[in-house]
């Protein structure tokens, strides 16, 4: 009897009542990234965990309790919860995310957590990053808002572009104030992707990008820290013991891995040489221990995850579901490439975590929740 209940539960997870099948490829890719991330995190964080806490697996256990456990629960919940019901809650969720982003600037709640960006909140003994919640809430809100408008209205500057620009500007200003340039770039990429798919004018998108570059250049010129980071990205050799230290050590870790790596658990850079070794630098440890071949595999898995998201969006006839799928897929691929690109010297260091792999309970839990929504959308499409 119990075995039949388990089988029926599993079947209900992968199949909707009308026989539609969940995206097995998406589930498999997320599962691979989750278990691979835990394996790499256990190795990358072992030295620092023992040095600080006297426990080799402290960070791994913390990730399991505050990231994997709630994340899997969110994943399963949203895989079953009809995503269309999220549409009426999109605006309240977005307002809550804005409130949390404002809360980081209030003394007693906000914290920098050893970074120059004020992007953490401490409540009731827990700490989390509201910017991670803001990504998903913005996707839901923007998708809901655009789905309620015809393409002709969206193409109109007064009725479509300017209201879209206002909602993007509200969350953008809060990101600039922290400052969190990595999250800002991710949110802008999400907004452009959804706006384009919804039928937004290419002319408006072009001017948005041009104005964005201009505003970014102006803000960078007035921020000594951000300007120094950008200068260090262009010439890391000018400050090898300061801001250039992390990128130089990351490149050393990636280069020393060779084709097949030093072997799992045999990284040298994790012995207090590479900063943020289990955070935004975790890809360097993966490259050092597992080599070039496996590093490329990670990139391919993220690309496959992106294309599965686009495929789900393409098969979805509901506009809200289509836009949400595009937004989630764009979010994950942009964040992954910003992180990996920074480690190999293509982009400046922004501090964004590598989805599913970097240490951070908020990031992992929200990413799994987003993938649960993708699975739910795939269960309600008419074809593959």
Task: Label this structure with key terms.
384 residues, mainly alpha, three-stranded antiparallel sheet, 15 helices, 3 strands
Task: Explain this structure.
The chain has 384 residues and is mainly alpha-helical. The chain has helices at 2-14, 24-44, 46-53, 58-80, 90-103, 130-147, 151-155, 157-177, 181-197, 202-222, 224-234, 244-256, 282-315, 319-343, 361-379, and strands at 110-111, 120-123, 126-128. It has one domain (39-104, 130-379). 68% of the residues lie in helices and 2% in strands. The chain has a 3-stranded antiparallel beta sheet, with no helix packed on it. The longest helix is centred in the last third of the chain and has 34 residues, at 282-315. The radius of gyration is 21 Å and the shape is globular.
Mean pLDDT: 85
Strands in their spatial order, largest beta sheet: 1-2-3
Radius of gyration: 21 Å
Shape: globular
Distance between the termini: 33 Å
β-sheet strand percentage: under 5%
| Total number of strands | 3
- The amount of helix comes to 55-70%
What's the number of domains?
A: 1
Structural class: mainly alpha
Number of helices: 15
> What is the succession of H and E elements?
HHHHHEEEHHHHHHHHHH
Report on the biggest sheet: 3 strands, antiparallel
Low-confidence stretches: none
Task: Summarize the entry for a quick read.
With 384 residues, this protein is mainly alpha-helical. The chain has helices spanning 2-14, 24-44, 46-53, 58-80, 90-103, 130-147, 151-155, 157-177, 181-197, 202-222, 224-234, 244-256, 282-315, 319-343, 361-379; strands spanning 110-111, 120-123, 126-128.
